[in-house]
Design goal:
- The protein is built from 2 helices and 9 strands.
- It has one domain: Beta Barrel (Lipocalin).
- Strand 8 and strand 9 form a beta hairpin.
- The chain is of the alpha+beta class and 171 residues long.
- Helices cover 22% and strands 43% of the residues.
């Protein structure tokens, strides 16, 4: 009986020792994996910018409670964002507020920096809905996946958003 207790105790100690030395990914390894994932998304040209925080020019900043996003693929740009600020010309349809744009005709320029990417998106003026108002979208993405988006428009004050980059979910 004493031998059985001794063997059982040794097995428990060996198991505890093995579990304590199990390799968990370090913070640096997690950060490198996240950076590689973000790099893969940016280089593929297919990702979603999810806005978490809005920073209007002439109003206080605040967190967004509804999911607003910008979906970017190599052949399609879909923008659905709120707008707070001064508009110099009102939209003809009052239900078309915010920054809404769906187009396949745009340029997407990506500049890679040391720890981030600067992406400039310019919708061409072939009159898709909303393209006459949105001039440029400037997206700064860090290796951690955090991003800042600045939207400049023809008939509105510029507006900025803070958020993060996600992979496009396949349905």
């Amino acid at each position: 009986m004493k031998k059985l207790k001794l063997v059982f105790t040794l097995c428990v100690c060996a198991l505890a020792l093995q579990l304590s030395y199990a390799q968990k990914p370090t913070k640096a390894e997690k950060k490198a994996a996240k950076a590689a994932d973000i790099k893969r998304l940016i280089s593929s040209g297919s990702y979603i910018f999810v806005a978490d925080y809005v920073i209007p020019n002439s109003m206080p900043s605040h967190a967004l409670t509804t999911q607003y996003d910008v979906t970017i693929t190599p052949d399609k740009l879909d923008v659905w964002l709120p707008y707070f600020g001064r508009a110099y010309a009102a939209p003809r349809d009052p239900t078309e507020g915010g920054v809404k744009l769906k187009t396949t005709d745009f340029t997407n320029k990506v500049v890679s920096k040391k720890n981030n990417w600067e992406i400039t998106i310019v919708p061409k003026q072939s009159n898709p809905p909303g393209a006459n108002d949105v001039r440029n979208l400037f997206l700064d993405v860090t290796t951690d996946g955090y991003a800042s988006l600045r939207v400049t428009s023809l008939n509105r004050q510029p507006i900025s958003f803070n958020g993060h980059i996600e992979e496009i979910k396949k349905n």
